[in-house]
From TrEMBL:
Stretches that traverse the bilayer: 20-41, 87-111, 143-161
Compartments (UniProt record): Cell membrane
Assembly description: Homodimer and heterodimers.
Organism lineage: Eukaryota, Viridiplantae, Streptophyta, Embryophyta, Tracheophyta
Taxonomic superkingdom: Eukaryota
Name listed for the protein in its UniProt record: CASP-like protein
Keyword Membrane belongs to the record: yes
Organism expressing this protein natively: Tagetes erecta (African marigold)
PANTHER family, per the entry: CASP-LIKE PROTEIN 1U1 (PTHR36488)
Pfam families in the record: CASP_dom (PF04535)
GO CC, one annotated term: plasma membrane
InterPro entries recorded: CASP/CASPL (IPR006459), CASP_dom (IPR006702), CASPL (IPR044173)
Length: 176
């Protein structure tokens, strides 16, 4: 009787852990999908007056797209793969996905800092003064990506404890 009750408690705890892992994977899916979609649709056009001939201004339209920066392209690809990974719920590739998405988000953070503030030493001008909406969308995509990384990390931590519990049920903190 006591062994059956212990088995029921363990199965309830496994069900709870499984439910939490699935919930975190779904949250990671939404976060990485949001980051992918927001960055992939990120585009802004700004028209500049470059000269004036008589009373007629000569204008030049410049478009900022995510494809113009390799870092943004890597960001979209890494988050797209992480979205697919979360959709398929493949546990083996979690560490690789965390590394890829975190690396892509960090690269975009660096490029975003450069776009917002420029670099006087390299004579790179600020870009976000002219393409404010584009930069704001990229910042939102980066934030969603880091949230996805957080959820993927939580899934991994839970999976590590769960794996440890399966190997040694009496020593794992999840089985107590």
């Amino acid at each position: 009787m006591g062994e059956e009750k212990l088995t029921n408690i363990i199965s309830i705890k496994r069900w709870r852990v499984t439910t939490i892992v699935i919930l975190l994977r779904v949250l990671a899916l939404f976060a990485t999908a949001t980051a992918t979609i927001v960055m992939a649709l990120n585009k802004e056009t700004h028209t500049f007056a470059v000269a004036t001939i008589g009373n007629t201004p000569v204008k030049l339209a410049i478009t900022a797209k995510f494809q113009h920066m390799p870092a943004n392209l890597m960001f979209v690809i890494a988050n797209g793969v992480a979205t697919l990974h979360s959709l398929l719920m493949i546990t083996i590739m979690c560490f690789v996905m965390i590394a890829a998405v975190c690396g892509a988000a960090t690269t975009v953070a660096f490029i975003g800092e450069l776009a917002r503030h420029g670099n006087a030493h390299a004579r790179w001008n600020k870009v976000c003064d002219n393409f404010e909406r584009y930069c704001d969308q990229a910042s939102g995509a980066m934030l969603a990506s880091y949230i996805g990384v957080l959820f993927l990390m939580l899934v991994n931590v839970i999976n590590v404890f769960e794996h440890g519990r399966l190997m040694s049920p009496s020593k794992s903190p999840l089985s107590a």
